[in-house]
Design a protein that fits this description.
mainly beta; Jelly Rolls; six-stranded antiparallel β-sheet; 14 strands; 9% helix
């Protein structure tokens, strides 16, 4: 499967976007391995600015990245991963939250030698359908498949805003079911974008806005929580996440 790469300035509903804010730019790609999506990922990185190192001080015109691989063993599967790890332990200005009944935590997959890899601890066989963009750890919620990424002024509890967000998905097998939803500080839906299909491969979708207008992103990977056998023919698709890339959270804002 060859990768495809799309960048589109959106002024109407276009491919991959169920709803789109005017002026948003979408970066999208899918394929069987990391090389198939690398061009789209790098273009999105460049659109958001230079990378900022972990810590409370970052260039407001830069970006942050999470690739999960530095998460220590004590916070990796089968252990739970704290939702505020990347605002306290390794400060990057995001907190992960879930408001769905049945949710019981987050996990980052284990390194080879520390435990079952790529979430085989949640369902034996996951490692056969999940690939990595940056080896070797992945991320998921457990008990439910959807969660929120809330932007914070790095190292504080102050709500912040960002220019955009993108993520690498693995094993997107059913069209238009794996999505990112972007919300303003007022809770207004700014856009909903679908990751392209690459069953047992890698998909990327990232959206850059013309200004810092995104306060929260809802990540909806697949149709079921990990722990469920992948069965796309019957509408069941389990999807894990690799790299997160987002604009530097800043511009403290009060919830109205």
């Amino acid at each position: 499967m060859k990768g495809t790469f799309l960048t589109t300035t959106l002024t109407m509903i276009l491919a991959g976007a169920a709803f789109a804010q005017p002026g948003a730019t979408v970066f999208s790609a899918a394929g069987e391995n990391a090389d198939a999506i690398r061009g789209a990922v790098d273009a999105f990185r460049n659109a958001l600015g230079p990378v900022n190192a972990p810590g409370p001080d970052g260039n407001p015109e830069g970006r942050r990245e999470i690739n999960w691989d530095g998460v220590p063993q004590q916070f990796s599967s089968p252990n739970q991963f704290p939702g505020d790890f990347f605002n306290k332990n390794s400060v990057r200005g995001v907190v992960f939250t879930v408001n769905t009944p049945g949710w019981n935590g987050f996990q980052v997959s284990a390194n080879d030698g520390d435990g079952p890899v790529r979430f085989d601890n949640l369902y034996e066989g996951n490692s056969q359908v999940f690939k990595t963009f940056s080896a070797q750890k992945l991320f998921t919620s457990t008990g439910t498949h959807a969660y929120d990424v809330d932007f914070k002024v790095p190292g504080t509890e102050l709500q912040a805003s960002s220019r955009g967000f993108g993520a690498v998905f693995t094993n997107v097998a059913i069209p238009f079911t794996t999505t990112l939803e972007f919300y303003s500080v007022d809770g207004v839906l700014l856009g909903r974008y679908s990751a392209p299909v690459a069953a047992k491969g890698l998909s990327f979708v990232g959206v850059a806005y013309p200004s810092k207008m995104v306060s929260r992103v809802r990540v909806i990977p697949g149709t079921a929580a990990l722990g469920t056998p992948d069965d796309p023919a019957n509408g069941v698709n389990v999807v894990a996440l690799d790299d997160f890339i987002y604009g530097e959270p800043s511009n403290p804002c009060a919830v109205r």
